[in-house]
Design a protein that fits this description.
Spore Coat Polysaccharide Biosynthesis Protein SpsA, Chain A, single chain, alpha/beta
């Protein structure tokens, strides 16, 4: 019996290493499979990263910039989207975090200053929120009290409580009066650059009508790290400047250079109180800025026409642009000589009329009073919602919406007489042209 038990024990002992060896083989196989799975998952992840980076690389610059901005801080973007839409009437622009890609700075118009509150109100309720408007104000309480209600004031001591709420108000210090055009513009550009820090700023006044979607698309072609001074170029003596009425664009890089130049002593960027031309420039700050840009910074205006033919920025309203009834002085500021200075051909010297007056991608019209702002905005909205309106329906709609008589404004023009068939045809073709769904596609700025 003892011998039998000993035999059994020896057999068990002899079998044990085989079992352990079998277990070791199983563990090795499991580890091997886990390693293979890990390698496969890493390969898939690496491939996904490569594909993602390749996709980003192939995107147009504006989409790439937007995509990378979201990836950099996705939580902030998501939070901004949720926060900004809550109880913010008219919020339309794309959510983002950090500095905005562009803002529209609305300067005070010298025409009909008493009507400014009405104009700002109409901008606030039409194109203003989408264009990320910043109203330049001397008296917030009188001109735009909504800014106080929503704590949306930019000043030397304050910032908007919600940076995603537009319009905002930029408070000009009391010591800079309305007559001090150059110091006011310098303060505005410096404050916008330092406190808002947009990629681009579009400077207009409260008589300007802006189509934000078209502005957004136009800016997709430019880099904020490069210089940009763009608008509707005009001749001034031997210089070229962009119409402040039609609005002009500055990139972040150009604003930075201007702010630095104003701190220096270059005579092209500073005012000499004893110089007659300097006194004239005090009332024409846009011209002085253009001189400073060209002479001190080598930044000049450019040809902004669509297809080098159709203007995007207009110093006159829709009706006058279509009919060609613009002022003689304005026509004289388009010459073949100045066209060469902005890299344009001689066709720049001739202002077109009819539906050729305006690009499909038109960005702005000027001398637009508050009722015309509402009418043009409502007409475009109706056409975008129903592009198949007949000419009769469109004409009836415009007649119902458009102001008449003195309400049109001193520098605008009423709609054509209903019997003026040719002018109505040109006007309706133009309205349809600037209100196409194609131009309303998503913009990534």
């Amino acid at each position: 019996m003892a011998t039998s038990n000993l035999h059994v024990r020896r057999k068990l002992q002899s079998d044990q290493p085989k079992q352990e060896e079998h277990c070791d083989d199983g563990s090795k196989n499991n580890r091997k499979r886990r390693n293979e799975v890990g390698i496969a998952m890493s390969a898939v992840a690496l491939l996904a990263v490569v594909v993602l980076l390749g996709y980003i690389f192939l995107l147009p610059r504006h989409q790439k910039r937007a995509f990378l901005q979201v990836i950099k801080n996705p939580w902030a973007h998501g939070g901004a989207a949720f926060m900004s839409r809550e109880n913010v009437a008219g919020f339309q622009h794309h959510f983002y975090s950090g500095p905005p890609s562009y803002v529209t700075v609305v300067m005070p118009s010298v025409v009909n200053p008493k009507g400014r509150p009405n104009r700002l109100q109409s901008i606030q309720e039409t194109w203003g929120p989408h264009a990320r408007s910043i109203f330049v104000l001397s008296n917030v309480t009188h001109e735009f009290p909504a800014a106080m209600v929503h704590n949306a004031i930019i000043s030397e001591a304050t910032q908007p409580e919600n940076p995603f709420r537009y319009p905002q108000a930029l408070q000009v210090p009391e010591e800079i009066g309305d007559a001090n055009g150059v110091p006011r513009l310098q303060f505005v550009i410096r404050t916008v650059h330092e406190k808002v820090n947009p990629d681009f700023a579009f400077f207009v006044n409260d008589h300007t009508f802006v189509i934000p979607e078209h502005l957004c698309k136009y800016l997709q072609n430019f880099d904020p790290a490069m210089d940009l001074y763009a608008g509707h170029a005009l001749k001034s003596d031997n210089d070229v400047f962009n119409s402040g009425a039609a609005g002009y664009l500055l990139s972040r890089n150009t604003m930075k250079k201007l702010v630095k130049a104003w701190q220096g002593t270059d005579p092209h960027c500073t005012l000499d109180p004893n110089n007659r031309k300097s006194k004239w420039l005090q009332g024409n700050p846009g011209v002085m800025s253009a001189v400073c840009l060209k002479e001190a910074l080598n930044v000049t205006a450019i040809d902004t026409r669509e297809d080098s033919k159709f203007h995007r920025f207009h110093a006159f309203p829709l009706t006058r642009s279509v009919s060609g009834s613009v002022d003689k002085w304005y026509m004289n500021k388009h010459t073949a000589e100045m066209a060469q200075k902005i890299g344009a051909d001689e066709s720049y010297a001739t202002l077109l009329q009819g539906d050729d007056c305006c690009a499909k991608s038109t960005v702005s019209f000027h001398y637009v009073e508050y009722l015309e702002t509402r009418a043009l905005f409502a007409t475009r909205e109706r056409l975008l919602a129903n592009p198949h309106l007949t000419d009769k329906e469109l004409m009836t709609l415009m007649i119902q919406l458009w102001p008449t008589g003195r309400k049109v404004g001193a520098y605008s023009r009423a709609l054509p007489d209903s019997q003026n068939v040719e002018e109505w045809k040109a006007l309706m073709r133009t309205v349809r042209k600037i209100a196409t769904r194609e131009m309303q596609q998503e913009c990534y700025l």
